[in-house]
Write a structure and sequence with these properties.
The chain has a five-stranded mixed sheet, covered by helices on one side. By secondary structure, the protein is α/β, with parallel strands linked by helices. The chain is 41% helix and 18% strand. Helix 2 packs across helix 5. 21% of the residues are buried. The longest helix is centred in the N-terminal third of the chain and has 28 residues. The chain has two domains: 30 residues; 128 residues, Glutaredoxin (3-Layer(aba) Sandwich), CATH 3.40.30.10. The chain is built from five helices and seven strands.
Amino acid sequence: MKGRERKIIQYVILIGILLLGGYAVGKTLFVSDDDKPKIGGRPPSFENVADIEGNLHSLDDYKGKPVVINFWGSFCPPCVAEMPAIDRQYLKYRDQGLVVLAINLSEDDITVRDFLKRFDLHYTILRDKNRMIEKKYALRSYPTTFFISRDGRIQDIKVGGMTEEDIEQRILKLMEA
């Protein structure tokens, strides 16, 4: 009887672990639509995120300014293609308060620095080393770009690459809001 009771307890524990693991994986991979940032809503905040020089940034640092948050990776051809175009638009509108935060998706320092050596980008590059921001923003593909108006609300969300004309139209709309 002892051996049989032990087996039953082991099966119950195994089933419990599988259920808990399945729940955790499901919560991570399948974010409900209620949890996703939406146009008209507030973007998820982030704090103390390091840029490439080690300076810390929080989304609250940019309250009252139009902000473009672009999630990117050097492994992503559309990300790479749109970064110089985003930079040209940033240079055009930065004197009017535009902020661009390009958040790298957990690549190592050497990869990011090598990538940035190829481009002369003037906007802030942040590092999401533990992928917490990526999870808060419920990203499913790259690039994904959020356009946040001066009042702190998400004006637009673009999933996928953009042409320079598309970037400029979205930024013009953002600057007018």
